[in-house]
Amino acid sequence: MYDLCISNGLCFINNEFIEANIGIEGNRIAYVGKEDVKGEFEIDAGGKLVMPGLFNAHTHLAMTLLRGYVEDMPLMDWLSRVWQVEAKLSEEDVYWGSMLGILEMIKSGTTAFADMYFHMDEVAKAVGETGIRAVLSYGMIESGDDEKGEKELKIGTEFVKDWDGAFNGRIKAIFGPHAPYTCSPEFLLKVKERAEELDTLIHIHVAETRQEFEDIKKRYGKTPVRLLDDIGFLSKRVIVAHGVWVEDDEISILKERGVSVVHNPASNLKLAAGIARVTDMLNAGVNVCLGTDGAASNNTYNLFEEIKLASLLQKVATGRADALKASDVLTMATRNGYRAYGLNGGKIEEGMLADIIMLDAKRCNYVPSYNPLYSVVYASYGCEVTHVIVDGELILEDGMVLTMDEEKVIDKAEKLKDKFLVA
């Protein structure tokens, strides 16, 4: 008798959908196979596709409140406007913005996410209340100011110590220096040393735009990746967001150092940042996962959009229709995200974290289905998600979120809009 069991579904196992039953004990998958399973709680997944939960590997969650606020601008101009309005965000604002983002992610099949922002205690509280899994970091900007750097590192360190392992391990707290153009090499080395002391990870923006690429070269005489490598910053502890502007030898550096890269296709397109060399990185053995970035530059946290975009962009960029196959991009959105952040999940396999989603296989956009894999990757909107299980707990049932008051969250977030309106 398992704590929870899933029967009669088509399960995504070893890159294909096959009939299987799943038994869950505690927060782990305890059984996957053809035998009948019984549980304290049972889900009949007949007519459903069962797959690992999606991992959104790069977000700024509370930016839901700035969704649609600044549009049609390149990154640096966009950032200037965004940073001005972000200064108005209170702790309570970040809480409700995070709740709204989590609501959107749960309803579209995301079971875990990695966030970098400020007022991160409020994000952690939202994670605890809603049942989702998260890797959280306080976004540090030091700007070459030693005094500011000390304050930022103190806040980041206290956050890691306060929240790492919280809520039965659903929160993993790490460090989040913003980028090489907002943090000096000296500060980044202090972050690296602190991460090693606390045995945790580092989430950082790198080589997002050509302007950043050129500005770093002008300032330091080196490209962003080479700069970070030359100062000894890069290692398997580091997760790089974007990595759009990287050269051949830099891809080799990322592989050799064990760095993971988060591809954010919609945000990169919207801010005209470019198309990351995902196929080249995967072929070189780099662990590449998927993220949405913040809702102010996307404008959704729907990872199914990123799945389709990621595959299509590599086909166009390389001129090869098989450049990024359906099974590969789905692995990027699931297993690779969990792997990047050192979590044993993202696969339907015994011993893995019980983070699982189910999709309605009878949706009109999935019919006819010659291969469910292609339906999921190329025809999903996100609304097909019917059930979400995180850490062995059911948090979405028949499309209804069980851990939050959806109407209250939407109402609170909508009312906050007035705070940011300008004359």
TrEMBL record:
Please identify the protein, giving its name as recorded: 5-methylthioadenosine/S-adenosylhomocysteine deaminase
Membrane-spanning segments: none
* Naturally occurring in which organism (per UniProt): Archaeoglobus veneficus (strain DSM 11195 / SNP6)
Q: Matching CDD domains, A to Z?
A: ATZ_TRZ_like (cd01298)
Instruction: State where substrate binds.
Output: E86, H178, E208, D293
- Which sites bind Zn(2+)? H58, H60, H205, D293
Say which family it is in: Belongs to the metallo-dependent hydrolases superfamily. MTA/SAH deaminase family.
Q: What EC number(s) does the entry state? A: 3.5.4.28, 3.5.4.31
Question: Gene3D superfamilies from the entry?
Answer: Metal-dependent hydrolases (3.20.20.140), Urease, subunit C, domain 1 (2.30.40.10)
**Residue ranges of domain Amidohydrolase-related in the record:** 49-394
Q: What does this protein do?
A: Catalyzes the deamination of 5-methylthioadenosine and S-adenosyl-L-homocysteine into 5-methylthioinosine and S-inosyl-L-homocysteine, respectively. Is also able to deaminate adenosine.
Q: State a single Gene Ontology molecular function.
A: 5'-methylthioadenosine deaminase activity
Q: Which InterPro entries match?
A: Amidohydro-rel, Deaminase_MtaD/DadD, Metal-dep_hydrolase_composite, Metal_Hydrolase, MTA/SAH_deaminase
Reaction equations catalysed = S-methyl-5'-thioadenosine + H2O + H(+) = S-methyl-5'-thioinosine + NH4(+); S-adenosyl-L-homocysteine + H2O + H(+) = S-inosyl-L-homocysteine + NH4(+)
PANTHER family, per database record: AMIDOHYDROLASE-RELATED DOMAIN-CONTAINING PROTEIN, AMINOHYDROLASE SSNA-RELATED
- State the gene name recorded for this protein: mtaD
